[in-house]
């Protein structure tokens, strides 16, 4: 990947003159059967651009309460777009078509206008949970019936696809816009892509600029994204197997409870009091294992391409040594 970055041919992307950025955008759009794509520094930016492009002030977005756009983007929906959120409580972050349809507001002067539905696949806070293609299609049908747009926060969409076996084209056919992240499981150092129609991406470019996301010789970074899409998708299965192995060993530890279902590369679990999150994380770090606090007494582990099976074995031994 580093060699690909150093060999990149670059230009000024603000003027659409960076050939490597153009190649990455064309590649990603083509993979999902979309007309165009936009390269951005982060998934938060691609999501926020999508919200702004799809909506107008006083609209609302329908999403699960665990959604990244609600939990981890600093209320950007309000700051950037002047819209509200209609939060639903799905199953580990996964909504149903019936839930979405029931949430759509009638058109009264005193209510926000339901305009956009956002699905997160896989759902981070839901433990890497996966939408089935059938569920997505049913939700798409509801959106078409009520003339709502449908956006996919697909930061970890490739984690979902290597498990379900669905194609990128089948996912792309169901959404008006898609955000994909290159810097998580795919292992690139920087970057996310927003996919959509040419007109949609044309407006998104303007919004990227006002948000400070216009980049110059970004091809050095885009080259890493091309390499990641070419070489790091199928290997995501290894991360999933490592996560399952880790979760399986944790079932025997009496200070751990409520391990969420492990569908992909995320393991979320609770610590049984009197052990505390801070105490546990300090113990892990002292012994060379990284975890993150994910709520009161809740911890998240994530496996990725820098974590191999030997490291999982070491992590298990460390976990067995706590208390």
Short description:
With 323 residues, this protein is of the alpha/beta class. It contains 14 helices and eleven strands.
Topology, please?
Blueprint: H1 2-6, H2 19-31, E1 36-40, H3 43-54, E2 59-64, H4 68-71, H5 76-81, E3 84-88, H6 97-103, E4 113-120, H7 133-146, E5 149-154, H8 157-164, H9 168-172, E6 177-181, E7 192-196, H10 198-210, H11 219-231, H12 236-250, E8 256-257, E9 266-271, H13 277-286, E10 292-293, E11 298-302, H14 309-320
Parallel strand pairs: 2-3, 2-4, 4-5, 5-6
Antiparallel strand pairs: 1-7, 6-7, 8-9, 9-11, 10-11
Question: Would you mind describing this structure in some detail?
Answer:
The chain starts with a helix and ends with a helix. By secondary structure, the chain is of the alpha/beta class. It has a 7-stranded mixed sheet, with helices on both faces. The chain has a 4-stranded antiparallel sheet with strand order 8-9-11-10. It folds into 2 domains: 2-231, Aspartate Aminotransferase, domain 2 (3-Layer(aba) Sandwich); 236-320, Aspartate Aminotransferase, domain 1, CATH 3.90.1150. The protein is globular. The chain is built from 14 helices and 11 strands.
What's the overall geometry? globular
Q: Tell me the series of helices and strands, N- to C-terminal.
A: HHEHEHHEHEHEHHEEHHHEEHEEH
Strand content: 15-25%
User: What are the low-pLDDT stretches, counting only 5+ consecutive residues below 50?
Assistant: none
* CATH topology (level 3) name of the largest domain: Aspartate Aminotransferase, domain 2
Helix content: 40-55%
């Amino acid at each position: 990947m580093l060699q690909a970055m150093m060999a990149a041919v670059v230009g000024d992307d603000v003027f659409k003159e960076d050939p490597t950025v153009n190649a990455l955008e064309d590649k990603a759009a083509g993979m999902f059967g979309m007309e165009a794509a936009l390269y951005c520094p982060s998934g938060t930016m691609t999501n926020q651009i999508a919200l702004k492009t799809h909506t107008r002030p006083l609209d609302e977005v329908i999403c699960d309460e665990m959604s990244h756009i609600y939990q981890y983007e600093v209320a950007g929906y309000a700051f950037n777009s002047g819209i509200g959120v209609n939060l639903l409580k799905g199953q580990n972050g996964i909504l149903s078509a019936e839930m979405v349809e029931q949430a759509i507001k009638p058109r009264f002067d005193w209510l926000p206008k339901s305009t956009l539905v956002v699905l997160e696949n896989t759902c981070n806070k839901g433990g890497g949970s996966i939408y089935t293609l059938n569920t997505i299609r049913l939700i798409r049908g509801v959106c078409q019936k009520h003339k709502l747009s449908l956006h996919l926060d697909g930061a970890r969409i490739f984690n979902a696809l290597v498990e379900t076996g669905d194609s990128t084209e089948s996912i792309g056919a169901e959404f008006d816009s898609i955000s994909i992240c290159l810097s998580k499981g795919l292992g690139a150092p920087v970057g996310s892509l927003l996919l959509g129609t040419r007109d949609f991406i044309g407006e998104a470019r303007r919004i990227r600029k006002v948000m400070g996301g216009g980049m110059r010789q970004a091809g050095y970074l885009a080259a890493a994204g091309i390499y990641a899409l070419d070489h790091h998708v199928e290997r995501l299965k290894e991360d999933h197997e490592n996560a399952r192995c880790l979760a399986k060993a944790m079932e025997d530890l009496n200070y751990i409870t409520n391990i969420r279902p492990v569908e992909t590369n995320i393991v979320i679990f609770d610590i049984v009091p009197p052990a505390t999150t801070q105490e546990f994380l300090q113990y892990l770090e002292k012994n060379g294992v990284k975890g993150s606090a994910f709520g009161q007494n809740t911890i998240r582990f994530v496996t990725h391409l820098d974590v191999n099976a030997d490291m999982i074995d070491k992590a298990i031994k460390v976990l067995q040594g706590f208390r």
